[in-house]
Amino acid sequence: MTDWPKNDLERIGAADELQLTSIKQDGTPRKPVTIWVVRVGDDLYIRSYRGNAGAWYRHIQLRSEGHISAGGVTKDVTFVDTSADEALNNKIDAAFQAKYQKYGATYIDPMIAPQARATTRKLVPAA
């Protein structure tokens, strides 16, 4: 797997929001959606606020490649399932709580709930 360039990792990790563009089966891009992103160590993670019901999440289940834009960085990425790693999910929960605490429990609680944890994906830059 490809690592993030340090500058890109810092800029994306610090961004409040990320624009995610999933790819249709025919290779054309879907309309971008705005989601949250967190950094844990040298990796970036996303989750679906709505769990499996999130449209963008259902789309990346069909095709695990897409495009992101955040912090002035745009990259093609692969979405890697990391939802089964309990210890990592705990760190990701803490990252969401720390980064987005200003939004309060109304928004944080769904992001750390079991249905969202089950959608955890690591963003891996395309080679």
From TrEMBL:
Name of the molecule in the record: DUF2255 family protein
Pfam family, one: DUF2255
InterPro entries: UCP028498 (IPR016888)
Organism this protein belongs to: Dictyobacter kobayashii
